[in-house]
Amino acid sequence: MSNLEKTLFQLKQRKAQKDENAEKARLKKALLQGNNDGARIYASNAIRKKSEALNLLRLGSRIDAVASRVETAVTMRQVTGNMAAMETMNLERISMVMDKFESQFTDLDVQTSYMEDTMSATTAISTPQDQIDQLLRQTAEEANIELQQDLDAKAAPVSEVSPPATLKDEDDKLAERLRALRPAT
């Protein structure tokens, strides 16, 4: 990978980090003004920018790894070409090595494609609510702001735990079903 491409990924990553910090500053300002809805939006944006920066770092690293492998392949092809020309090595063996390398390179392409699809899907999904709430609380604590009850009201209701007697009955029923499914020995 050329220095230009490395620099491009580094610049994009730094920009995403700066955007994240700017969103955190907006979040703090919104909390100071008591604008919880705006603060929630800024928190979501900050988390998304943080994920974007990490994804750019990962992508740059993976592209660098692929570029290194391609460079190795080119070097290997030149070396084997020279060796074949000198007739110092079996041409059939060289062919087998190159076929194996091409197979591994194809596997790498499939893995890279899968990773890119996964990263695209991940960034398309909305930011998890618990991360937004955590960032809101952290920013409020740093700014010595007491969050209004609005945040707690918007939090997802906690499911009630079944009493132990109900769990025991359920376990007994499942154990009975398991015994019925097992063959008699």
From TrEMBL:
Write out the entry's keywords from A to Z: Coiled coil
Provide the residue span(s) of the region labelled Disordered.
149-173
The major lineage groups are: Eukaryota, Fungi, Dikarya, Basidiomycota, Agaricomycotina
One GO biological process term: vacuolar transport
Q: Which Gene3D superfamilies match?
A: 6.10.140.1230
Q: What is this protein called?
A: Vacuolar assembly protein DID2
PANTHER family per UniProt: CHARGED MULTIVESICULAR BODY PROTEIN (PTHR10476)
Tell me the domain of life. Eukaryota
Keyword check for Ribonucleoprotein, yes or no. Answer: no
